[in-house]
Structure formats: structure tokens, C-alpha cells
Amino acid sequence: MAKVSVLNMEGKQVDEIELNDAVFGVEVKENLVHQAVLSQLANNRQGTQKAKTRSEVSGGGRKPWRQKGTGHARQGSTRAPQWTGGGVVFAPVPRDYSFKMNKKEKRAALKSVLTDRVNENKFIVVDDIKFEAPKTKDFVKMMNNLNVSKALVVLKDNDVNTVMSAKNIPTVKTALTNTINVYDILKYDVVVIDKAAVATIEEVYA
């Protein structure tokens, strides 16, 4: 089992914990991680893009001129794609881009990125992340103490003061243990996690 130092909000070591290898010491499966990222990005797409084809634009009922004898190229409708105001060739239509991964694949992908963060020493466990009041300044101070700038902060409970303190920092995102995902863990340089949240993740995913 990997051992990780537990720091306080001042950045000083106060304890040490062993991480469960069933969650934080698995084989990193890059193909599943890649698939999980693609799935999340695809599922976030609205898929509402729409343009009209020649059959949907208004007008163009009559032939603009006779077939022969005018010197012009033959035309059947003013709503054909080559005309101004005509329809779009192969126009995009609303569609669902989402695709599903099965539960085991999702869990394996998440455990892979958590293991990777531990292996790269980008997994910081904090004894207890609590703030008396929602102050961005206090949260920045904690981040500086931990020597971290761009981080995903994982909490066990939805502590309003902590969430509000981090809200205005563009390089920080807070998440609960049941909302963490592969994309966010990879997007942010470091995972800063509450000690209680580690136990919860091990309980759920082990």
C-alpha cells in the first residue's frame, strides 16, 4: 500500500495514511481513461445545431426560367444550394452525441487516474478543509501553503464556506466524492482531498 502524508491547511505534516491498493494502486488502463474522457465530452454536447436543406427553405416553387434557349445554365429552383437563400447541402440536424460506458469500465477508468495522480505525487491529502467564513483570500492562502495553483479540491461534505471560498478562483474546482470524474482529475494539475473523502472513496470503489 502506498503511504501518503497528511497535511494541515498550513501545509505542515500532521499524519500519514496508507491508501488502499484496490483504488489507488491499480493497473493504469489508458484506453479506458481515453474512452471515459471522450464519453464525458460527447455527453456534454447539446447536439442542437440545425440548418435547412433545400426541401425546408421557403420559396422556389416555380422554375426560374425555361429549360432551353436563354443562354443560362438550366435551373429547377431558386432554393437550390448554389442560389443565395438556398438550402444547405448535407445540413446538420439535431442529434444525440452521447454514448455509454458500462459501470465496470467507468470505475476502472476513475481508479486508473487516481492511481496515476498518486504515482506522480500529485495527490495531496489534507487533514480537514474547513473555513469559518467564505473568504477567497483564506482559500488562496491555503493553496499557497500547499504549494498548489491549479487543483481539483475533493470534499466529503458540501461545506458551503469552502465551496464559496473557492468559487472565484478560476484555477480551482471543488467536487464531492460522488461527483468526481476522470476528465476533471486530468484537467487539474493536482488533486487536493479531504482525509475523510479518501475513506469515502475507498469505501465506494474498493
From TrEMBL:
Residues 43-85 are annotated as: Disordered. One of its GO terms (cellular component) is ribosome. The keyword Cytoplasm does not apply. The keyword Membrane does not apply. Keywords: Ribonucleoprotein, Ribosomal protein, RNA-binding, rRNA-binding. One of the primary rRNA binding proteins, this protein initially binds near the 5'-end of the 23S rRNA. It is important during the early stages of 50S assembly. It makes multiple contacts with different domains of the 23S rRNA in the assembled 50S subunit and ribosome. Belongs to the universal ribosomal protein uL4 family. Part of the 50S ribosomal subunit. This is Large ribosomal subunit protein uL4.
